[in-house]
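ok so for the tutorial part 2 we go from a plain amino acid sequence to predicted C-alpha cells. step 1 is just haveing the sequence, like this:
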Amino acid sequence: MWVYTVTYCFDGGKGVITSLSDREWPMKRILKNKGARTGVFFGATSGVITTIGLVAGLNAGTNSVVAVLGGILVVAVADAMSDAMGIHLAQESDPDSTHEHIWAATIWTFVTKLVVALTFAVPLIWFPLQLAVAISVGWGLLVITVLSAYLARVQNSPVLHVVTEHVVIAIVVVAVSHYIGVWVGSTFA
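step 2 — the prediction. this is what the C-alpha cells look like for a chain of 189 residues:
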C-alpha cells in the first residue's frame, strides 16, 4: 500500500493541503525514526527467535497442537509486553534517548513482537502439526534472512556474511530447543 505524505497549512482554523510529496513506502517512513527502527528490528528478531525456539521445543516435548498453539499465544502477548518493557527501561537508561525515541521503541517493540509471533500460529491452524512446525521454522528463517539482508545493505556490510551469521544463530536456537523438548518429554512424561 502506497500513501501520500500531506503537508497541511492551518489558516484560520481550516486545514489546507499545500503539497503532496512523492509516494513513500509506509515502512520506510517508520524506519526513519530511530526509536521505531529499534522497536521493529528488536521486536521482529525476538518474535522469530523466541517463537521458533518455543515451537521446536514444545513440539519435541509434547507433540501436541494445543501445547504449541497455546505457547505461541502466550509468548505473543506476555513476551511482547516483557520485551517492550525491557526496551523501555534500556532506552531510558541512555541519557541521549528522547521521550519520543523511548516510546517509539517501546510501542514498536510490542506491536512487532506481537504480530510476528502470531504469524507462527497460522500454520498450526491450517496444517498437521509436524508440517506446521516445518513451515514455522522455514517462515522464521525467511524473516531473519530478509531482516538481515536489509540491515546489511543499510550498513554497507557483506550481505551473505550478515545473513549467514543470523541464520546460523536461529538454527542453533531451534536445535537446542528441540533437544531440550526431547529431554523434558522423555524425562518427565
